[in-house]
């Protein structure tokens, strides 16, 4: 079943029982986790081609975080039990899962590389360029808070604010 979610709508919530798996067809989602101390941390970005939640591709587990659409997005929703049944009965399905997890691992390695590259401004530019490829160049600050941007590029919110101001100032001087 295909579902369209608009910016700000929830795909799944932290603690949901994992009744469904989702294939991201288009759009982008941010995944946040609420900790016991009240801190909310952005820990993942979901993009087209992914099957999620990742930790439930082989066996069920409650959702680890909340996935929120950053732009209008389309997903295919499937019953988790039907997926697991097909996995048990179709040996080729295991290779599909392995490829999905390999792709996510490669993405995470790329994100780690981006966190260790040069200056905060360079990391912000890399994040912006990457998200532009999937969001029709929706402005970064329309999708993420400054705090979330900082979490993704490894800097404090104040640094993000300064970088965004500098970027706006350089655009107006051209």
Structural summary, described in words:
The chain is an alpha+beta fold and 174 residues long. The chain has a domain at 1-90: Jelly Rolls (Sandwich). 46% of the residues lie in helices and 23% in strands. It is built from 6 helices and 8 strands, in the order ββββββββαααααα. The protein has helices spanning 80-89, 91-116, 120-135, 140-143, 146-153, 157-172, and strands at residues 2-5, 10-12, 20-26, 29-34, 40-46, 51-52, 66-69, 73-79. The chain has a 4-stranded antiparallel beta sheet with strand order 1-8-3-6. Helix 1 crosses helix 2 and helix 5 (146-153) crosses helix 6. The termini are far apart.
**Quick one: how many beta strands?**
8
The number of helical runs is 6
| Computed Rg | 17 Å
By secondary-structure content and strand pairing, the structural class works out as alpha+beta
Low-pLDDT parts are: none
CATH topology-level name of the domain at 1-90: Jelly Rolls
CATH arch. level architecture of the domain at 1-90 = Sandwich
CATH homolog superfamily of the domain at 1-90: Jelly Rolls
Which term fits the overall shape?
Answer: elongated
Bin the helical content.
40-55%
Strand content: 15-25%
Briefly, what CATH class of the domain at 1-90? Answer: Mainly Beta
Largest sheet: 4 strands, antiparallel
Distance between the termini: 48 Å
Order of helices and strands: EEEEEEEEHHHHHH
Biggest sheet strand order reads 1-8-3-6
Query: What's the average pLDDT?
Result: 92
InterPro entries: cNMP-bd_dom (IPR000595), cNMP-bd_dom_sf (IPR018490), Env_Response_Regulators (IPR050397), RmlC-like_jellyroll (IPR014710), WH_DNA-bd_sf (IPR036390)
Organism: Paenibacillus dendritiformis C454
Protein name: Putative Crp/Fnr family transcriptional regulator
Domain Cyclic nucleotide-binding: 1-76
């Amino acid at each position: 079943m295909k579902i369209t979610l608009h910016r700000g709508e929830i795909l799944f919530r932290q603690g949901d029982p994992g009744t469904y798996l989702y294939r991201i067809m288009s759009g982008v989602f941010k995944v946040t986790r609420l900790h016991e101390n009240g801190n909310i941390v952005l820990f993942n970005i979901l993009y087209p081609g992914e099957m999620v939640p990742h930790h439930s591709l082989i066996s069920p587990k409650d959702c680890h975080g909340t996935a929120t659409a950053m732009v209008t997005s389309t997903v295919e929703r499937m019953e988790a039990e039907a997926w697991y049944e097909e996995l048990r009965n179709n040996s080729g399905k295991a290779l599909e899962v392995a490829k999905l997890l390999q792709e996510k691992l490669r993405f995470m390695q790329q994100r780690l590389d981006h966190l260790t590259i040069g200056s905060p401004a360079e990391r912000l530019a890399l994040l912006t360029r990457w998200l532009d490829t999937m969001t029709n160049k929706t402005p970064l600050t329309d999708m993420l808070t400054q705090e979330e941007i900082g979490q993704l590029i490894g800097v404090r919110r104040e640094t993000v604010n300064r970088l965004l101001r500098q970027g706006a100032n350089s655009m107006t001087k051209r």
